[in-house]
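Thread amino acids onto this structure.
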């Protein structure tokens, strides 16, 4: 048995809500189905990721570490999927990080000129300081 991308997504969603019922609703799953997937994930990890108390879920220390790594995995998995789609379409993705001032003033003109020169290129920008 191996960990699946769906299990990672389920775990991250459950962590977001800290409630299996709400997470199951968000994921369009039954609550028992989500609970089973999480139990299988914990069995694979051979450690509890959650401490279950009455009506509360609390991440164990192992669960906190797993969540951090799961988020990194999910980002990489999404990048892999995007890459596969772009290869299939003949499109190329270029990711650019911008500081806010540059993104609002300088970049829009460059962006349009670049896309005119390279129409099969898709640009994804992220603004951060």
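Threaded sequence (129 positions):
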């Amino acid at each position: 048995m191996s960990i699946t991308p769906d299990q990672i997504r389920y775990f991250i969603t459950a962590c977001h809500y800290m409630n299996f019922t709400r997470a199951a609703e968000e994921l369009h799953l039954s609550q028992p189905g989500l609970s089973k997937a999480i139990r299988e994930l914990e069995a694979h990890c051979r450690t509890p990721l959650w401490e279950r108390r009455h009506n509360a879920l609390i991440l164990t220390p192992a669960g906190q570490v797993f969540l951090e790594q799961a988020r990194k995995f999910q980002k990489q998995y999404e990048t892999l999927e995007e890459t596969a789609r772009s290869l299939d379409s003949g499109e190329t993705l270029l990711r650019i990080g911008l500081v806010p001032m540059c993104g609002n003033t300088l970049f829009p003109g460059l962006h349009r000129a670049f896309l005119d020169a390279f129409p099969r290129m898709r640009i994804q920008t992220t603004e951060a300081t």
